[in-house]
Amino acid sequence: MSYKFFLMRNAALILLSAFFLSCENPTAIGIDTGTGNVQSTYYSDTLSLETGTMLLDSAISSGQAAALIGSAIDPVFGKVSATAYLQPSLYTDETYGTLVEFPALKTSIYDSVQLRLVDRDILVFGDTLEPITLSIHRLKKPLDRNRNYNYDDQSDFEAQPLATAEINIRSFSTANRDSVIAHYITLPDELGKELMAISETDAAKTRSTFENSFAGFALVANSDSKGMYVLNVGTFSSQSTYLVLYFHNSGESTSSAYPFEFSGKRYNQIKADRAGTNLASLVQKKQTIKANFSGNTYVQASSGVVSYVKFDGLNYLKKNTIINRAILYSEADESSFNARFAKAPYLTTIELNQDKSVKRSNSNYAYVGFSSLDETSGSLGVYSDSLKYLQIDITPYIQQIIQKGKADYGLAIVPAIPTSTGSTGTFFNAAPNRIVLKNMKLELYYSN
Q1: pLDDT given at position 364
Q2: What pLDDT was estimated at residue 6?
Q3: Is the pLDDT of residue 41 over 60?
């Protein structure tokens, strides 16, 4: 259903609410402009703002800073399961940031090869104590370096695992959780010897040639696992997950090591079962469900579940109206907060196409920035636990609708990670952080 409300119109401020504000006839009121003069305002006809939840057709999972493994049952969003696909690459020196050559090991003696797992923030969704069984499978071919993988993509891997291990929170931290530790899984010797052989070929010369020559891994947890772990991946560091090859030269008593970082192509495949939740009917991409009676809409990172909003009532404003500022305001449903499922405190907006697909600009998402559309990052909204609300600046989007006649196909409100500026963000899909929004409004400042 859509939520009807009255639009309070004046030369300074409009509040457009996603909830029914009044069923009484509108009356004129006075506003002090700050000059000592009191100007009157009036209400317009009944307008509508459409809000709801949708399943995006595109939520890129490639290149995230985390590899997700396991399953967790969120009491609000349902069960979410993750498989991580990782492509190892030559590593970067932690101090100087330069590529470290993979040396030729023709005269070296192979010792072992291990997968080193790190959950730097000791971050787990769901049950932290019950172990999950993690299986390491070999991909049938390397991941495509030029492809952006979606959250529901899947890559073929060998049925027989290279190794299995049981892990829980104690695998990654000391008993009192004051220090992070790495968990090592030993892999078959055949894999290590394959790496030794590659070291003597041109495939070892660059990242691209190595990644195209060595198939990576799928990290798969048991289907009935109750915890989802967040492993840190990316460039090599003491706090990252990586593959490590051990070898020595004749006469040496200690091993040397070459780590292969997971900075190459990587992604998380996410599966969701929302049965028994308010989102049970959300099963198809680009599908939308209207906000429930209380006006709640939902956002969950990694799974493609986002809130959306359309501004149907704006066509009542005159084309010559000058939009000075437009702020999307929302509270959070605090009753949905759960210590085992981290919040998504940062949000931004992306435009939608007429068919509800995500709009793109030069292959990037079409973010709504502070001053223009089609930006590479969007203006950032930050939920404040003290203020109990968040605000997102969408001024250029509303300006285009009112002043340029732009069609309003709606905005997706997506989880975000802040950029280096701190005021903008990009789509975050590295973990199933979530938030439930309510009492959504548009604060609109304008003049004629």
Answers
A1: 93
A2: 29
A3: no
- pLDDT-based confidence at residue 321 (cuts at 50, 70, 90): confident
| CB-based burial, 403-429: b 16+ in 10 Å, e otherwise | eeeeebebbbbbbbbbeeeeebbbbbb
Residues 91, 200: Cα–Cα separation, whole Å: 17
**CA–CA gap between residue 233 and residue 64 (Å, rounded):** 8
Q: What is the pLDDT of residue 18?
A: 40
Distance CA 290, CA 279 (A): 10
Reported as a pLDDT band with limits 50, 70 and 90, residue 49 is confident
Global model pTM greater than 0.85? yes
Ramachandran bin of 409, using left for φ above 0, alpha for ψ from -120 to 50, beta for the remaining angles: alpha
* Category of 283 on φ-ψ map: left (φ > 0), alpha (ψ -120 to 50) or beta: alpha
Alpha helices in 102-188 (DSSP H): none
Name every residue whose Cβ is closer than 8 Å to that of residue 245 and which is 6 or more positions away in sequence.
Answer: 113, 192, 195, 196, 257, 258, 259, 260
CB under 8 Å to 12, separation ≥6 — which residues? 31, 33, 445, 446, 447
| d(C-alpha 221, C-alpha 131), whole Å | 10
- Helix, coil or strand: residue 192: helix
The predicted structure's pLDDT at residue 448: 72
Q: Is 374 exposed, middle or buried (0-12, 13-18, 19+ CB in 10 A)?
A: middle
Query: At residue 354, does pLDDT exceed 80?
Result: yes
- The two three-digit tokens of residue 98, written as one number: 């330069």
Q: For residue 125, which of 74, 172, 51 has the smallest C-alpha distance?
A: 74
Q: What share of the chain is helix, strand, coil (3-state, %, to 5)?
A: 10, 45, 50
